[in-house]
Amino acid sequence: MSVPKVSVLMGVQNLEKYISQSIESVLTQTFTDFEFIILDDGSTDRTLEIIKEYAAKDDRIRYFSFPQKMGIAYGCNFTVEKSVGKYLARMDGDDLWEPEKLMLQVEYLDSHPECGVCFTQAKIIDETGKELSSKEANDMNVLFSQTNKTQAQWLHHLFTHGNCLCHPTSVIRKEVFDHINGYHNAFRQLPDFDMWMQLIQFVEFHIIEKPLFLYRWFENNTSKPNPIGISRTYQEYFQLYLHLFDHIPDDLFIESFSDLFICKDSQTEQELACEKAFLLYHHSAGLLPEAGRLAGLTLLTQLLNQDDTRSLLQTKYHFDTFDYVDFESKPIFYSSSYYDIPKGLTKDIVSSTATLFYSTGDSIDGTEFLTTQYQADTGLQQLEFQLPEGTTILRLDPLENHPCVVWYLAAEINGIPLHADPFNAQQEGIWYFDNDPQIGFTLEQPISGTLKIVLGVMPLHQTITSNIKNQLSQVSVSKLYLSKFESNYQQQIGKLNEEKEQQQAVIDNLKEQLYAMTVDRDFNKQQLEAIRNTKAYRVYKKIRGIKK
């Protein structure tokens, strides 16, 4: 029996409703030289039974089953270990392939040996197979419609924007996958993104710019934003960032990120180590850049504890332990802060409606919400909502369908502070929303009662939002120098004012002494003149022969 060229790998759990359609879309591919490895990850419904029925009819299918759920990353690594093909094609048990998908990807990989991973674009469908609009799919169709970039451009884009590559569209060279450590077994949210960030550092990516994959988007989809997922994502981003640049070639790192360097001429090992720390602190993105800031601080801690890099940070980057303490003193895990918005950027909106979507289940469906009116662009506003019993998910839409900046946000439920995270916002100490701002709140357990929110919103003109977005990186690159300059300037002004006050005090004291001496002189002069006019002084003068 010949070795198949492609190993199609599927992991599935409790998807009896969709598994038949997914399997059929693989078996009916125009490219047929593949094995089909299906792993049932502890299903409790008819999923495994359906897999066995298909395996009995098509000998390309090899199936495995775990008695209990082992998780996505473990399952992905397991199917890779069982594979024998030259290429690994990933598939999920609720999605669909267009018939020519596999053929086009194999043809490209065969003719481009420099390419390590080939993706396609995707359509987003609902449970019934109906294609969803951007609004219905939370812009997932836009996210998964990427166009081709160079290796350096992909590395830059993935780092500054987060994951935009659809995992089950991928076909990977087996020899390339074997070069890395596989899927991170501890990751639930980012195992695929972690793999892309490893692979892009030594191979090229390519996208077949056609929507050859149908991605099913439904209520229980694990990719949907939710407080629990966001908490996990924070931790996984931090772990990923800590060692992200450990093995990247210097020339690729410089080509990818030199536009964001603090010092454009950085080239040595120590200089690039400093740039990597600052890059993590200022530019790591995705939905949750705060984890990158913490990773950047961790690397700066190490650099400041080494004599050579500590000296380099001070002399070349004008960064010392006091600057580190300043970084360390700023909040990490929320991005709201006071910020001066330049005049001319605001859009006049006298009144606005803030909408609070909530759910007592696993996801927000848009049918349960509360609203309140407030005055936009008039300073801090206090909003208040009464939540029903058992609320598990919260999302605030502060300014529906309007570009804006949320420059301050603080929330508490029954006096207990809540952590807030923006969805699809550019973040640089404040939250820039291109349109339709949405903010999620992390709930540790079901809640009810009074939710109080203090909100600062600046509406923006649509025409200037793209300029703001393009200039964010430039702003953050110079932020280190700007903050240091402002700090030094204020210190110098304070020192000058203090010296001026001290000098004025000396002058005032001298004036008082001079005035006292003048008074004493005048008094003594009067006393002396009075003495001279006495008869006794004239006698004394005559006896002594004192001349005037």
TrEMBL record:
InterPro entries: Glyco_trans_2-like, Nucleotide-diphossugar_trans. It comes from the Bacteria. The keyword Cytoplasm does not apply. Keywords: Coiled coil. The keyword Iron-sulfur does not apply. Residues 7-177 form the Glycosyltransferase 2-like domain. It holds the Pfam family Glycos_transf_2. Residues 482-513 form a coiled coil. This is Glycosyltransferase. It comes from Clostridium facile.
